[in-house]
Task: structure prediction
Amino acid sequence: MPPAHAPSDPDSPAGQGNSTPAGGGNDAIDALDGRLIRLLAEEPRIGVLECSRRLQVARGTVQARLDRLQSKGVIGGFGPEVDPAALGYPVTAFATLEISQGQGSDVRTHLAAVPEVLELHTITGRGDMMVRIVARSNADLQRVIDRVVGFDGIVRSSTAIALENPVPYRILPLVDQAAAE
Result:
């Protein structure tokens, strides 16, 4: 029998039905999923067996949870976190792009071919797309911008250079909140 503070094993007969979080509003993850995600985020090279030991659940439970989280799209991968600045691209900028009607697919294809484009979002508001780009220097940023906007489907652009990143991309506070719901 697991210790009183450890979550039930949902794969055991006694643990059936215990995967719905309190409040019932969030069916994406529960507290054990949240603890598993946090552990993997803090120690990405940890193995399934060590996860099970630290979380005090069966190895099969950890594997089943990982498989489910991956199939639901909660966990997208286990690759390394790469810092563009450490690769020699210390300048980050955000460009808002206005595109010609009906050119969205072609613009997406064009932007996907630019290695310095790290992200692309379609947006509401004054522009149609927002891209996060990186460059080796401010002078190199001009080259990247020229390549980004050098496509007939892009009508206008506006670029802002990021000066500092006081809250870098993070997901764990959101995971903690979702697991508590």
In short: Residues 129 and 176 are 30 Å apart (CA to CA).
